[in-house]
Amino acid sequence: MSFPSPLPRHAPAAQLGFRQERKYYLTPSDAAVLRQRVAWLLRPDAYSQDGPYHISSLYFDDIYDTALRQKQCGALVRDKWRVRWYNGATAQARLERKHKCGDLSRKEQTWLNAAQFERLNRGDCACAAGEDAPVWRALYAAWLRSWLRPVVRVDYDREAFSYTPGNVRVTFDSNLRAARPGAAFSLPVQTDGLVILELKCDGFLPSVVAGLFAGMEFNQLAISKYVMARFCLMEHGCS
């Protein structure tokens, strides 16, 4: 299948805050070629001014491993909870709820103070009680309903580019690692050197961006860093 396949227009979905999101595996050589093309047209995002940056995501799941099972069985509609921070700066961490519907996704988020981050990091979601933001109320309800708690930390390097028309974002992720919540050490998730390409946009993908991928062949895949990291810990007896 040629990359990228035509992305259908989703104007109503975009108006509701949903974005289109697709993921692909790239070999290191393909990633190098595509990165050079993308950098010619798109601008680096705020974190990528000096090259790749480091992302840490603390993922949550419930006692039934609902998020893990839904992703494995290909559930069309699902939620993903995480706390995310960049370049080790936990003082600028955010709580995020990502609502997925097929290739569409919508994100709710709020900044965390130091106390909130520490409590969530150790699984104390009771800190959400009394908070006014909708994402906090949803987290508290999920915790009461099925004991939502942190299950894995995913670390990786990202280089990101953006293009204003269509609110396009192209990211290259590599060096994926997994760790138990609060652990100082992490385990490599990938040993094949593959790069994860993510393509995101609002209602449409501009043709000038699509043209950057001319002559390259990739297949869209249901890639989940969360699932990969969970199984990595399981395989090493760290879950």
Describe the structure.
Residues 18-230 form the VTC domain. This is Polyphosphate polymerase domain-containing protein. It comes from Desulfovibrio legallii. This protein is of the alpha+beta class. The protein has one domain: Alpha-Beta Barrel (mRNA Triphosphatase Cet1, Chain A). 26% of the residues lie in helices and 34% in strands. The chain contains seven helices and ten strands. It has helices at 11-15, 28-41, 66-73, 114-121, 134-146, 207-210, 225-235, and strands spanning 19-26, 43-44, 53-61, 77-86, 94-101, 104-111, 149-163, 168-179, 187-188, 195-201. It has an eight-stranded antiparallel beta barrel, surrounded by five helices. The radius of gyration is 18 Å and the shape is globular. The N and C termini lie far apart (36 Å). The model is unreliable at 1-6 (pLDDT under 50).
Describe the SSE topology.
Elements: H1 11-15, E1 19-26, H2 28-41, E2 43-44, E3 53-61, H3 66-73, E4 77-86, E5 94-101, E6 104-111, H4 114-121, H5 134-146, E7 149-163, E8 168-179, E9 187-188, E10 195-201, H6 207-210, H7 225-235
Antiparallel strand pairs: 1-6, 1-10, 2-7, 3-4, 3-7, 4-5, 5-6, 7-8, 8-9, 8-10
